[in-house]
Amino acid sequence: MTTLHGPQTSPSAQAPQRGESAGELRLNRHRPGIKAKPLPAPEAALDDPALYINRELSHLEFNIRVLEQALDPAHPLLDRLRFLLIFSSNLDEFFEIRVAGFKHSLALGRDESGADGLPVPQLLTEISRLAHEQVERQYRILNELLLPALEEEGIRFRRREDWTPEQANWVADYFESRIQPVISPIGLDPSHPFPRLVNKSLNFIVELEGKDAFGREGGLAILPAPRSLPRLIGLPESLCAEGIKEYVFLSSMIHAHAGEVFPGMRVKGCYQFRLTRNADLSVDPEAVSDLASALRGELLARRYGSGVRLEVADNCPEDLADFLLKQFELEESDLYRVNGPVNLTRMMAVIDDVARPELVYRPFTPGLPKALNRGGSLFDAIAGGDILLHHPFQSFAPVEDLLAEAARDPEVLAIKQTLYRTGADSPIVGALVEAARGGKEVTVVIELRARFDEADNLALAAKLQEAGAIVIYGVMAYKTHAKLLHIVRRERGGLRYYAHLGTGNYHTKTARLYTDYSLFTADPVLCEDVFQLFQQLSGMGKQRRIEALLHAPFTLHEGLVAMIDREAEHARQGRRAHLIIKCNSLTEPKLIRALYRASKAGVECDLIIRGQCCLRPGVPGISENIRVRSIVGRFLEHTRVFYFHNDGQGEVWGSSADFMTRNMFHRVETCFPLRDKKLAARVRKDLETYLVDNCQSWLLQPDGSYLKQHPGEAAPISAQETLLYAYATKA
User: Fold this and answer.
1) Relative to the CA of 323, which of 104, 204, 334, 581 has its CA 20 to 30 Å away?
2) Residue 271 has pLDDT above 70, yes or no
């Protein structure tokens, strides 16, 4: 059995090399996917490609850090399985969007190299190498570590060769009654060409021998697995050993009974495969008069985009794999042979099905600040001063409760809200519907193009419109990604504004899984700014005057660059200079150059970047004052929050935007100051907690690799556990 861990590694040590047979699966033992380049001289131009890490390879490195969590015994066993499956889901999207986009560009004769200068053909080669390596590693982790560990805990996945006679009989009955009635085999011949298969669907290619009822000679057939059926089926308790929960894969059932689908023919071979297609949506702003109708058409097309990746069972013969590659117009490098199910993400069903609380993280009750623990009206509480929530450690319920109260309150006249990822069944949508039906002015800016949530957003748009709300789809060329809520309330004969600004989405479920900040405020300046942003989104006219907020695509980028440059100027004047940036991705070249300038001037730059980071830290004379860490743990780090020392007059900003080109120039985003000094100090303390994490923290090295931090002789510090203990009511 492969061991989980190698020796403890000091933070300053170089990442061990991959290739040692005993260490390939170990935590923190992999070579970077980014090829190291010679470090530039201190006087090098800040646009030197050697100073930039490729965005796509950095994206893959993040997915590798997610996969590494499956090896970490600090996580409960089922959560380790969850991380392994999230790696699959992330990789699916990476191929559907990023790899598909580059293949499409090449087909059009475009080579869209980034700031690192890596040509697209070379990039695709490197992506293929790294992805093949990690997928093979993923299945080894599953087969050699997680499945045996789960079996020791009484959770078993039965292979066909291990079925008892009683189980085999039950499977036969299940196949006859549940699977065969809905399965549609497709024989391949001149009158039955190769079918169009849905993106990421489970299929089988079957070799047949003999003659059918029409006298046709056997050959090949395609057997699509019904999408309506679960991919994992629990065996009846009476057929399982005592205390054991046993499962059978749908693919195993179809394998075992493929012959019954082709009566009178001999099945020479049956092999599962799955095709990943281009799933990006393409809507031309100049050719669309109705965005909702255009998106409905694109959603149908998404299921049948061009192929980008083919997964097959590792025992599939070469000639059949080549046949499939030819059908989908793919190259050998696009083929992934896997030792197990081709659709691992469907194993998520087990985590929800198994009632084993000791194998998952302990539940907790999110806390509430004192201002919200006193009961009474939320409007009164917010009028008493700004309130900040840190999800999921603190409850998301006050956001829902505020809207519910606003919907019922006869003094509330108008509600405006942006929705990016929410869901039609959300309590927030329910409150907006109630408010609209109650005669209040409800305006909702829905971003229909939130990737993979387009169908849900179309549904909630229809639901709101039916209730009488005004629904706006934002600005055609700019996704509305800002998280804003504005309420107009009649008080003491006048009108008062209330607002909520957030770093995350108005989504009840993800608020329990993602870290984000929520700010409730009645500050007249901030509330007026939010009002003006809504007016700008719903109407037309020149850019409106915004006093306190920064907003994209107008002032956010230049404002952030100016604040970074301000720190650099303080450093040049001999003053203390420090900044902390926490966001999901750092890829925008001008912001990276501003950080390089700050480092050269002597600014201490602490960057907490969960995912993609194109900045190369630790380059002597250029970025030696920059430290980049990624936190990967129980919760998905999603907060975008920025601290600037500002010569002792510290500023803290929350934002809906990452440090990416799309967020700065192609989206509607907001960045809001925390004007309450106590709240700003609290956020800075939270950030400092992340900076001392030595359990879930990975430090980015100059060569682009990430090095997992270990406590060593020091006390272990997990930022997420610390914040959970600090803010949650009961952990």
Assistant:
1) 104
2) yes
Pick the CATH number of 370-547 from 3.40.630.30, 3.30.870.10, 2.40.50.140, 3.40.50.720: 3.30.870.10
| Length of the chain counted residue by residue | 731
Beta-bridge partners for 447 = none
Q: For residues 376, 380, 386 and 388, what is the CA-based torsion angle, rounded to 10 degrees?
A: 20
3-state secondary structure 124-167: HHHHHHHHHHHHHHHHHHHHHHHHHHHHHCCEEECCHHHCCHHH
Give me the chain's average pLDDT, please. Answer: 88
CA 12 to CA 539: how far, in whole Å? 55
pLDDT of residue 452: 55
- Whether 291 has a pLDDT exceeding 80, the answer reads no
Instruction: State the burial class of residue 6 (Cβ atoms within 10 Å of its Cβ: 0-12, 13-18, 19+).
Output: middle
Distance CA 451, CA 283 (A): 13
- Single-letter residue type at 247: Y
CA distances from 207 to 188, 189, 262 (A): 10, 13, 11
Task: Give the DSSP letter of residue 716.
Answer: P
Catalytic residue list: 481
- Report the alpha-carbon distance of residue 185 to residue 222 in Å, rounded: 6
Burial of 238 (C-beta count, 10 Å sphere; 0-12/13-18/19+): exposed
| The residue type at 498 | Y
pLDDT at 493: 77
At residue 61's C-alpha, the angle toward residues 56 and 65, to 5°, is: 150
Structural domain boundaries in the chain: 55-354, 370-547, 551-727
Please name the fold of domain 55-354. Answer: polyphosphate kinase like (3.30.1840)
Count of beta carbons in the 10 Å neighbourhood of residue 393: 22
The pLDDT of residue 10 is above 60: no
CA distance 583 to 608: 7
Same-fold call for 55-354 versus 370-547? no
561/154 Cα distance (integer angstroms): 55
**Cα(539)–Cα(548) distance, integer angstroms:** 21
Judged by average pLDDT, the poorest of 18-27, 304-313, 497-506 is 18-27
Known binding residue 638? Answer is yes
What are the start-end ranges of the E strands in 589-715?
604-609, 626-631, 636-637, 641-644, 651-655, 667-673, 697-700, 706-708
Ligand-binding annotation for 646, yes or no, is no
CATH superfamily assigned to domain 551-727: Endonuclease Chain A (3.30.870.10)
Q: At 131, which amino acid appears?
A: A
In sequence order, which residues have a C-beta less than 8 Å from that of residue 239 and are 6 or more positions away? 164, 166, 167, 170, 246
Burial of 617 (0-12, 13-18, 19+ CB in 10 A): buried
With a CB cutoff of 8 Å and minimum separation 6, the contacts of 151 are 157
CB 585 within 8 A of CB 611: yes
What's the pLDDT tens digit per position in 206-223?
Answer: 999 877 665 666 689 999
- Judge whether 727 is annotated as a binding position: no
Question: Comparing C-alpha atoms, which of 715, 698, 513 is closest to residue 608?
Answer: 698
User: Is 451 assigned a ligand-binding role in the annotation?
Assistant: yes
pLDDT score for 464? 86
pLDDT, position 92: 95
